Amino acid sequence: MEPLLKVKDLTKYYPVRTGFRLKRRKLWVRAVDHVSLEIAHNETLGLVGESGSGKTTLGRTILLLEKPTSGQIVFQHLELTKLPSHKLRELRKKMQIVFQNPSSSLDPRQRVKDILCEPLKTLGGFETQELKVRVSDAIRSVGLSEEFLNRFPHELSGGQKQRVAIARALILEPSFVVLDEPTSALDSSVQIQILNLLRELQEKRKLSYLFITHNISVVRYMANRIAVMYAGKVVEVGKAKSVLQKPLHPYTSALIASVPEPDPEKKISAKPLKGEVPSMVNPPTGCRFHPRCPFAQRVCAEKEPELRIVQDGRLVACHFA
Predict the structure, then answer these.
(1) Least buried of 153, 210, 259, 293, by fewest C-beta within 10 Å?
(2) pTM of the full predicted structure?
(3) Which family does it belong to (predicted)?
(4) Which helix (H) or strand (E) holds 220?
């Protein structure tokens, strides 16, 4: 079966201002640099990496909230970057996003019912009675009663706000949803409730998720497959269980080793990574991870590794994987 979403050589560069010199050198922030991914029907692809690795920019660019610099985005056999605006507007019903912080993504001046009605009015064309039915169904589907429809966002808890944000994303009945760290702003006890809700909704509605997170424990619970991103590049892709049990890229190993173990008797065996995430304006030559990699050799600084199949369908961008 063809994947629901296919991304090929996607890039997103941002220009950098370098002052008022007469001869300015044009610099770019390489936030997303030739990324290729696939997401199947009813699948969750977990996208992990350090802060600043380009995860959120990739998610926003896939939805065309950010205009890509180059590359292809194929959704339901349609090339999004080549669609006319009226066709793209119609297709947006099938592609939605849940942002990280619900307090900033919900309009504080609107009641919950107006927040949920807005996408229906903007992209819909529904009768008034149908609007009411859809809004009522949406709020109930995320575990809230209809009495919440008359409340403002400041009258809701963090978990309730995120449930409203999820309801708003799903009210147009999409098939693909980008989840941009949807639980990172919530308490631990609320996080598992939201994660369970997302899994339940996925099962009922046959949704596909791009789940962006830096939390390995969350991606272990949610994802079917994992893509690891470093400095604008995808360095490893594979089934969640195999990637977490036997990482093949040194950066993936370091990410997994950094997860704290709730066992005071267990000794920490992994050494912390040296250095910092490289500049996205002037990234290292060759493999971008080589200045921090304990296994780096001369070829790593000279030649950029390709994302290639290593074993069992696992894709790894490393010369020595």
Answers:
(1) 259
(2) 0.92
(3) Belongs to the ABC transporter superfamily.
(4) helix 216-222
